Amino acid sequence: ACAFAGLWNCVTINPLNIAAGVWMMLNAFVLFLCEAPFCCQFIEFANAVSARADRLRAWQKAAFYCGMAVFPVMLSLTLTTLFGNAIAFATGVLYGLSALGKKGDAISYARIHQQQKQMDEELTGTLEGQA
C-alpha cells in the first residue's frame, strides 16, 4: 500500500508530493527488507539487513517505523500519504505495544498490593514502637 500510494503521489508537479512519494516507496522497500526478506531474494544484502533488524528491540523498531511513516505526512499532508503510511505506522504501533509487554491479571496485582500493604503496616508498627 505504501509503495503504490507513493507511486501515485509522484504523478504530480508539486515537488513536495514527489519527495513524499519517493520517501514512501523507500519506506516500502525498507519494510520489505526488514520484515519480509523472502520477497527480496534477488538482493544480496537482504538477509543481512533482516538479521540486523531482528536484533533490534521492539521499542527501537516502533520508533523507527513510526518515524519513517510520519515524515512523508509532514512533507505533504494528503489523503494519499495518510492512507499509504497507515500500514507502516500501524506496524510501528504494534511493535510499541509489544514492547510494553502483556497485560497482567488482577489476581497477581491484588497479591502484590496486599504484600505492599502488609510491609507498610509492619514498617509503621516498628516506627511507632521506636518512638
TrEMBL record:
Transmembrane spans: 22-46, 58-77
**What is its subcellular localisation?**
Endomembrane system
Keyword entries, A-Z? Membrane, Transmembrane, Transmembrane helix
**What Gene Ontology cellular-component terms does the record carry?**
endomembrane system; membrane
Coiled coil regions, renumbered to chain: none
Q: Provide the membrane topology annotation.
A: Multi-pass membrane protein
Question: Any one Gene Ontology biological process term?
Answer: vesicle-mediated transport
Main location per the UniProt record = membrane
Q: Which Pfam families match?
A: Cg6151-P (PF10233)
Q: Does the keyword Membrane apply?
A: yes
Family recorded in the similarity comment: Belongs to the calcium channel flower family.
Name recorded for this polypeptide: FLOWR protein
Source organism: Falcunculus frontatus (Eastern shriketit)
